[in-house]
Amino acid sequence: MRGATHAKWAACAVAVALAATACGDDSGSGGGDGSGIVRSSWGDPQNPLEPANTNEVQGGKVLDMIFRGLKRYDPETGEAKDMVAEGIETEDSQNFTVTLKDGWKFSNGEDVTAKSFVDAWNYAAHIDNKQNNAPFFSSIVGYDEVHPESGDAKAEEMSGLKVTGDNTFTVELKEKFSTWPETLGYQAFSPLPEAFFSDHEAWLNKPIGNGPYTVDSYSKGSSMKLRAWDEYSGEDKAENGGVDLVVYTDNNTAYTDLMAGNLDLVDDVPAQQLKNVESDLGDRYINQPALIIQTITFPLYQDDWSKEGTEKVRRGLSMAINREEITKQIFQETRTPAKDWTSPALGDKGGYDDEVCGDACEFDADEAKKLIEEGGGLPGGKVTLTSNVDTGSHRQWMDAVCNSINNALGEGTVCTVNPVGTFADYRSQVTTDKMTGPFRAGWQADYPLIQNFLQPLYYTGASSNDGKFSNKEFDALVDKANQESDEEAAIEAFQEAEEILAEEMPAIPLWYQNGSAGYSDKVSDVALNQFSVPVYDQIKVN
Questions:
Q1: Across 172-193, average pLDDT
Q2: pLDDT tens digits, residue range 468-526?
């Protein structure tokens, strides 16, 4: 996660059969009357849970439970359906009138009004508030005044947002953007209560939203307890009494607790358990396609990795990685070697191209050595891969990647792993430009569009461009695609932009990742959405 500005072309819905459900028996963590508590594995989020400042998976899981926006992506199809919005109307695809449904409230009793959205979006966009997802609002007139490229803000609010009634507001965009309403299911566009602004510190300690759950308590490094909100306004009310998110720094420990009956759900089955998981869990194991890709990104803000010629070194390292062998040995059938920078779940019509990376994504030890030598060699004669090691079996596969590189180059142990203990610490290092060598950069899409795999990660200055890649031709092609009203023309421009990634290799595509989860016989109706996040509100405790 997460993105920047969005595509201005009408993409057809990517209908991937991504949701899976199954039923268990026996009584569970509280009984079958809807009051039972689901116990699920989790990792501490990087930042406090402000919607516009959360662009990673663990924090996103919580926001998806405590907030509802104008739209919500259907857990099975990804279709953006109205939630708080009664309607979003336009006659020119540039000026929109948003009307809210009556009766929506925040869990502290405040009404959800047009002002709740407008104030939240202005807060998100303003440069002084340092929100990671501010670029999501850059298509609105007045964004440049509240978030200039340099210097102080020239305004406090975006002039393109106007409250016109308790339940209505208007939005003026800089340009035509026919699919703008489809982007509004992303959590950065959530409304905020007045309490967020009047006592910000108290809100950060115990966030208040308008979703089916409320935050009961949070102990960093231990757990977050969420409880079903009886007065929730939406139709997707929680089918359980709450969710206890338990922090694990080792997902093998989480799996052990699942098998011991101390946990109900693990949404990241560790690689070490994949050989046994089907016999352990039977139909309580979920393995399904997802909009996720794993990559290794280069810190191009470091001269050693960005000077002329190092694109050959980056391509050479990519060719030194035996993806086929690693995915078979470590991940069984839950990973597929990557051939581009998007996901097969998009489909050919959605922009997936299995030829764009070409030879650069194929294992070839001789060519890898040749390219690295032509590019001036590894900086300092070595390469260090960095990742958090608390989730995702990252240490195991990073060791395998280094072994592959070392064997391919035949120069001893030139590749080593730098493990970071927690996801939160790791992301803090990444977002403050502390990386000195390649680092893990997995991506879980916000919505099923090719744009969301390219622009947020590789467009100059984009919010998730952690490697600081910058290429004028790439940016121009993305801009061209975003201006297209014709879907095929837009996808073609995005694919041209992707070809530049194959030439420059700012990030090495490793493999596409399935969504996987295992659950106990104490819960039922467990499903993952198309982004591989559990649909917590639909889980029943037996």
A1: 89
A2: 999 999 999 998 888 777 778 889 999 999 999 999 999 999 999 998 999 999 999 99
- DSSP, collapsed to helix, strand or coil, labels residue 532 as coil
Per-residue confidence (pLDDT) for residue 486, from 0 to 100: 78
Q: CA-based angle 529:531:536, to the nearest 5? A: 40
Rounded Cα gap, residues 132 and 263, in angstroms = 32
Q: What residues contact 434, with CB distance under 8 A and at least 6 apart?
A: none
Q: Is the pLDDT of residue 107 over 90?
A: yes
> What SS3 class is residue 494?
helix
Contact status, residue 400 vs residue 329, Cβ threshold 8 Å: yes
Interval 281-296: pLDDT, tens: 999 999 988 889 999 9
Work out the end-to-end distance of the chain between its first and last CA atoms, rounded to an integer number of angstroms.
Answer: 33
Q: Are the CB atoms for 95 and 14 separated by under 8 Å?
A: no
| Sequential DSSP letters for 226-264 | EEE-TT--SSS--SSSEEEEEE-S-HHHHHHHHHTTS-S
Pairing of strands 383-388, 515-519: unpaired
Continuous H helices in 67-169:
114-125, 143-146
C-beta separation of 112 from 84 below 8 A:
yes
User: In this structure, how many other beta carbons lie within 10 angstroms of the beta carbon of residue 187?
Assistant: 24
* Token pair of 34 as six digits: 């809807």
For residue 209, give the nearest of 175, 234, 244 by alpha carbon: 234
Residue 12 pLDDT level (bands cut at 50, 70, 90): very low
Enumerate residues 6+ apart whose C-beta is below 8 A from 319.
359, 360, 361, 362, 363, 364, 365, 367, 368, 371, 408
Task: Report pLDDT for 92.
Answer: 86
pLDDT confidence bin for 424, thresholds 50/70/90: confident
CA distance 436 to 244: 37
Nearest to 84 by CA among 63, 95, 98: 98
Local structure of residue 101 (DSSP, 8 states): P
Does residue 22 contact residue 524 with C-beta atoms inside 8 Å?
A: yes
529 vs 244: CA distance, rounded Å: 19
105 or 291, greater pLDDT:
105
Mean pLDDT to the nearest integer, 302-314? 96
Distance CA(57)–CA(483), nearest Å, equals 29
Cα–Cα distances in Å, from 331 out to 343, 344, 360, 399? 17, 18, 22, 14
